[in-house]
Specification:
about 250 residues; alpha/beta; five-stranded parallel sheet; five-stranded antiparallel sheet; about 35% helix
């Protein structure tokens, strides 16, 4: 059994999640239910759970602030939250699991299965540490968790030059010209990257606008990167690119 704690300031959310866990995730044992971050800290220190279901938005101290109060994190975390664009972006870029309220039973099962794998492999703590760092940083200073064979590589967002589709994979090209082949689609990577910095210029290409030095209208349209590489711009993506570059 996986010992777990639910931390949420809304009692009906606690009750609903506990009921769903008893129905759909019988390997999860809820050992405490806490209505505040303060109660959560005390319960974590006393009970040493393996898994935490943590609400992001709570009065007085939110979920992120609560984690920063702990001496160390040696448990897996599944965040629960009403839709918040900023929070969702932070979770995706840091490869941290989260559930949107109201929690869907299938999503809950998937999240718990992933958490169980992380617990067995003792992984996931670095992802949480990266998340806590990212939420305090502006977009260009954040780090993105890119999956590799051994886990994740945490790469600075501003070091990414562009991303290109390679079948069901994505090739991430960095400013120093090395690249990584990631087992994620380009659409998945696009959701993780901050939209104020990156823009899709073609169905198969996303670029870092800070690395674009020229936009050339001829030959169908293309951008020149600061490495002198030329990347084609599709007609369908042209307007979005020009707007992002401040040319419209």
């Amino acid at each position: 059994m996986i010992s777990s704690i639910i931390i949420d300031d809304e009692q009906h959310c606690i009750d609903s999640l506990a009921t769903d866990l008893s129905k759909y995730c019988v390997n999860v044992d809820v050992v405490a239910k806490c209505n505040s971050a303060k109660e959560g800290i005390l319960a974590i220190r006393k009970l040493r759970p393996r898994l935490i279901f943590l609400d992001v938005e709570m009065p007085w101290m939110n979920g992120f602030e609560m984690l920063e109060m702990l001496e160390h994190i040696d448990f897996c975390i599944i965040f629960t939250t009403a839709y918040d664009k900023f929070a969702a972006q932070a979770f995706r870029i840091s490869a941290v699991d989260y559930l949107l309220k109201p929690v869907d039973a299938t999503d809950l099962q998937v999240a718990v299965q992933k958490a169980e794998q992380k617990i067995l492999s003792s992984s996931g703590v670095l992802n949480i540490q990266n998340l806590l760092q990212n939420i305090r940083q502006p977009s260009h200073d954040q780090k993105i968790a890119l999956p590799n064979r051994d886990g994740y590589e945490f790469a600075p967002v501003n070091a990414i030059l562009y991303c290109s589709a390679d079948g069901a994979y994505t090739r991430v090209v960095f400013a120093d010209k090395h690249s990584l082949l990631i087992s994620r689609t380009l659409g998945d990577i696009e959701e993780m990257l901050p939209p104020e910095i990156f823009v899709r210029i073609h169905h198969s290409t996303i670029v870092n606008i800070n690395a674009v030095t020229h936009y050339i209208r001829t030959d169908g349209g293309y951008v020149v990167m600061n490495t002198n590489e030329k990347l084609m711009v599709s007609k369908a993506r042209k307007e979005a690119l020009l707007e992002k570059l401040g040319l419209k």
